[in-house]
Amino acid sequence: MGKAQKYVLLGDATYPLQDWILKPYQEDDNLTQRQLQFNYRLRRAHSVIENAFLRLKARWQVLLKCDDCSLELLPTLVLACCILHNVCEAHDNPFNEEWLEGTEPSELPKPCQPAPASMEDGRAEQVRELMCQYFETCGEG
Asked: Ranges for the DDE Tnp4 domain (predicted)?
């Protein structure tokens, strides 16, 4: 029996490095080419995620007014919009670029201050290093 697939969340420099949160290497003059490539790929992935959320909010603008509904209904509303959005995307339902006019590309909520070093998980560096090696071997993308 093989090892279960492990998933990680993408974070930026303000998040603590954990074995379940991938964050970029701190940008300085000491980064190797491989670490720079890792940071570049994380930025690209983050950009894809932000674009997906922007399209989701533009297609289902009810998500822009979630403060109008009860907290009990909110998870169901978001889930329904995600499912319908994915169905539309999978079936090449045209996305109207005009929908974006009512939506601002905003950053996802994140901590204002970098997490203290004491919150970092020492094992997480091994996960980041393995991902860095993987990105190096899987070619440009």
From this structure: 5-86
Structural domain span for residue 43: 9-138
pLDDT digits (tens, 9 = 90+) for 87-133: 998 998 888 888 888 666 555 455 566 676 777 787 888 888 888 88
- The maximal CA–CA distance of the chain, rounded, in angstroms, is 50
Considering the domain boundaries, does residue 3 fall inside one? no
Instruction: Look at residue 56 and tell me if it is in a domain.
Output: yes
Separation between Cα atoms, residue 95 and residue 102, nearest integer Å: 14
Burial 45-82 (b: 16+ CB within 10 A, else e): ebeeeeeeebbbbbbbeebeeeeeeeeeeeeeeeeebe
Residue 104 falls inside a structural domain = yes
